[in-house]
């Protein structure tokens, strides 16, 4: 079946939203501005590593685009592009490609994991390069030649991220299979080591012997542990992955130490500096311990290898770093939610045995992002992701206010006029409620049943019963097992689904809505819009289902689709999806949710499902959890038909243009850019010094032997 190229081209009408931090930045003291600047630089420079994690061609494409847009202005380049045969639409498509490539930290979507190709032939891009100021630069042109064939190609194994035989990734060398990754997971478990900041490379010698090299991200290079035999193969751990980039990261963090607000921030930064030097995850965990103690700072940040959504094996993590100013007014709502959390947790459908022994009250702040380096910017975060710290020491929640409020006004598909009006009016309010509940009481709830090294358990084996069977607990997490290692590639979608479901269920309670400032009829509207928005999102998620591979790419989309299937199964006319004809005469859908049935049909259905999700998660029963989850994740003929309509009518996802912090004569200022694709490009070109881009180039050259 021929590939529909349009699915992989970012549309020319893609909206660009300003990540507005100007007012928030003004509230900071000079010292806080300096701290923000250094952490922002560390975050953005460190995020160059993401281009090396995504695909073999992402780093060289970055190099070529950076050198091109650095050499001449967008206006000058447009003139040259038109002179070599670009149409106006193709020039816009090229700018959109560059902006989307930068925003996704590579040529695969940060949200959706599918390839991004330019909406203009590569022969024309070559002609533009040759005509431009970099046309005589041999290094640029040779780098272009290395990616020219792959930048626009859509072979079946290039369409999405995945293991080397079915997809693209740089978390592993291209010869690593799922079986290889699972073998190394067993090696990690045996040694009680975690793989967050690692990559896996495989070599087969002439004697047929396989050597696996686990490479840790660090500026220092060398052997961490000598080669050992494991299951008939050889495994060695070395450090020095992305060495030049990690060096830049810890040098910026080192500069931030004198500007820290308190001892916790200082110690946190020192631990991070050592972590990025040595690659030891224990140092990052220690930094995270100081971070959770730093309660209520004016400037919030986090940095490291954090989220494992995009590793095909589900265990290695993408680099991300952010710095943000705390919005004290909005934060008050979240702090009230935290204060009431212990009582609210009792409403969740699993009882005290399945909840942490003591609820470790986290810091929960509303932030305006100043800088966010990664493949995408979330609306809320619950971190750290280390199970041992989250369960026993605590965590933090953040809601990213300027991300939530940056909404382009686009037609909302599949809704009638009245519902669309309500969505425009209350979506920001409902989303803030959902993010708050999802992060604090979703990701922040529930206990993992663990066996300790000394053979004891962290739960009463005589008293605690299985929620589903009523029998004694029969499975748990062995020493060395974590949530991610046990549930693997399913872990992210499963956990997002659990957190989403908590939000759906708890947004029904009047006292919770009141914490956010909504009472009476207004509270009812916010509750309705949250259900409407989230359940409809499960329908729209079908766009991200990879029909040829019969697999879900994006964790949040898979999660929402599963919950939409749960409420469709509940029946009683609660949710209706009907095929219609649009005003253009083409197939359309009509989505309707009966607001009068939220409490009597929707909530009980989600609640029952949520209890099962928690049961399998707490007991580490991967097989049971997988069976349950995948039974709702099935995409049948009806849903495939809906998917075709969703794709035909899809709206482009917004891109963000972020500001830059600049230091001049010892003072820090915030530079903003226009809300269009040229603004995104300019922000990236000005964000990076040439030396940083040369470091990325050197790391790429070093990686080439593996891909």
From TrEMBL:
Record's keyword terms, sorted: Acetylation, Aminopeptidase, Cytoplasm, Hydrolase, Metal-binding, Metalloprotease, Protease, Zinc
Compartment(s) of residence: Cytoplasm
Cofactor binding note from Swiss-Prot or TrEMBL: Binds 1 zinc ion per subunit.
EC number: 3.4.14.4
Record-annotated active site: 439
GO-annotated biological processes: proteolysis
Binding site residues for Zn(2+): 438, 443, 496
Broadest EC class assigned to this enzyme: hydrolase
Principal place of residence: cytoplasm
Molecular function per GO: aminopeptidase activity; dipeptidyl-peptidase activity; metalloexopeptidase activity; zinc ion binding
Keyword Protease recorded: yes
Catalytic activity: Release of an N-terminal dipeptide from a peptide comprising four or more residues, with broad specificity. Also acts on dipeptidyl 2-naphthylamides
The protein's name: Dipeptidyl peptidase 3
Species per Swiss-Prot/TrEMBL record: Caenorhabditis elegans
Taxonomic lineage of the native organism: Eukaryota, Metazoa, Ecdysozoa, Nematoda, Chromadorea
């Amino acid at each position: 079946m021929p590939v529909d190229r349009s699915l992989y081209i970012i549309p020319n009408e893609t909206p660009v939203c300003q990540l507005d931090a100007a007012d928030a930045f003004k509230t900071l003291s000079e010292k806080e501005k300096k701290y923000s600047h250094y952490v922002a630089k560390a975050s953005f420079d460190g995020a160059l590593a993401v281009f090396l994690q995504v695909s073999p061609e992402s780093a060289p494409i970055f190099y070529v685009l950076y050198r091109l847009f650095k050499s001449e202005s967008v206006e000058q380049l447009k003139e040259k592009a038109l002179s070599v045969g670009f149409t106006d639409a193709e020039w816009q498509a090229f700018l959109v490609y560059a902006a989307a490539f930068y925003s996704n930290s590579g040529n695969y979507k940060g949200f959706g994991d599918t390839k991004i190709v330019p909406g203009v032939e590569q022969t024309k891009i070559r002609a533009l390069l040759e005509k431009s100021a970099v046309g005589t630069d041999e290094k640029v042109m040779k780098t272009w030649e290395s990616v020219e064939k792959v930048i626009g190609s859509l072979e079946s194994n290039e369409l999405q991220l995945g293991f080397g035989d079915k997809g693209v990734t740089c978390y592993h060398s291209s010869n690593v299979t799922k079986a290889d990754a699972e073998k190394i997971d067993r090696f990690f478990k045996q040694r009680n080591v975690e793989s967050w900041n690692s990559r896996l490379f495989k070599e087969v010698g002439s004697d047929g012997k396989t050597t696996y090299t686990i490479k840790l991200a660090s500026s220092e290079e060398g052997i961490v542990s000598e080669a050992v035999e494991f299951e008939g193969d050889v495994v060695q751990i070395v450090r020095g992955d992305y060495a030049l980039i990690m060096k830049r990261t810890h040098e910026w963090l080192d500069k931030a130490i004198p500007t820290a607000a308190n001892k916790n921030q200082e110690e946190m930064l020192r631990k991070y500096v050592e972590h990025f030097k040595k690659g030891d995850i224990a140092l990052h965990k220690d930094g995270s311990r100081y971070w959770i103690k730093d309660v209520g700072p004016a400037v919030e940040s986090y940095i490291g290898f954090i989220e494992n959504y995009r590793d095909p094996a589900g265990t290695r993590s993408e680099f991300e770093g952010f710095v943000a100013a705390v919005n004290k007014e909005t934060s008050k709502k979240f702090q009230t939610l935290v204060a009431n959390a212990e009582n609210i947790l009792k409403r969740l459908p699993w009882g005290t045995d399945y909840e942490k022994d003591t609820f470790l009250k986290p810091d929960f702040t509303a932030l305006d992002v100043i800088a966010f380096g990664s493949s995408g910017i979330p609306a809320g975060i619950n971190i750290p992701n280390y199970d041992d710290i989250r369960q026993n020491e605590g965590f933090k929640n953040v809601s990213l206010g300027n991300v939530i409020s940056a909404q382009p006004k686009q037609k909302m598909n599949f809704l009638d006029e009245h519902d669309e009006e309500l969505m425009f009016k209350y979506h920001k309010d409902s989303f803030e409620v959902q993010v708050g509940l999802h992060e604090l009481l979703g990701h922040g709830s529930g206990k993992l049943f663990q066996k300790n090294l000394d053979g004891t358990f962290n739960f009463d084996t005589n008293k605690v019963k299985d929620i589903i069977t009523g029998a004694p607990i029969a499975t748990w997490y062995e020493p060395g097992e974590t949530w991610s290692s046990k549930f693997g590639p399913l872990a992210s979608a499963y956990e997002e689904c659990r957190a989403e479901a908590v939000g759906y269920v708890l947004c029904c309670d009047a006292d919770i809505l009141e914490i956010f400032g909504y009472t009476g009829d207004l509270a009812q509207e916010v509750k309705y819009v949250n259900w409407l928005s989230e359940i409809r999102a499960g329908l729209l998620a079908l766009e991200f289902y990879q029909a040829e591979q019969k697999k879900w790419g994006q964790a949040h989309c898979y999660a929402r689709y599963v919950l939409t299937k749960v409420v469709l199964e509940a029946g009683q006319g609660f949710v209706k999806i009907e095929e219609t004809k649009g005003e253009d005469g083409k197939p359309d859908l009509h989505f309707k949710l009966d607001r009068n049935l939220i409490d009597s049909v929707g909530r009980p259905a989600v609640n029952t499902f949520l209890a099962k999700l928690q049961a399998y998660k707490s007991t580490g029963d991967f097989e049971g959890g997988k069976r349950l989850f995948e039974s709702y994740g099935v995409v049948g003929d009806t849903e495939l038909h809906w998917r075709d309509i969703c794709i035909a009518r899809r709206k482009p996802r917004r891109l963000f243009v972020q500001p830059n912090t600049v230091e001049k004569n010892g003072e820090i200022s915030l530079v903003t850019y226009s809300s269009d694709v040229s603004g995104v490009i300019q922000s990236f070109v000005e964000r990076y010094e040439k030396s940083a881009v040369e470091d990325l180039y050197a790391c790429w050259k070093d990686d080439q032997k593996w891909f």
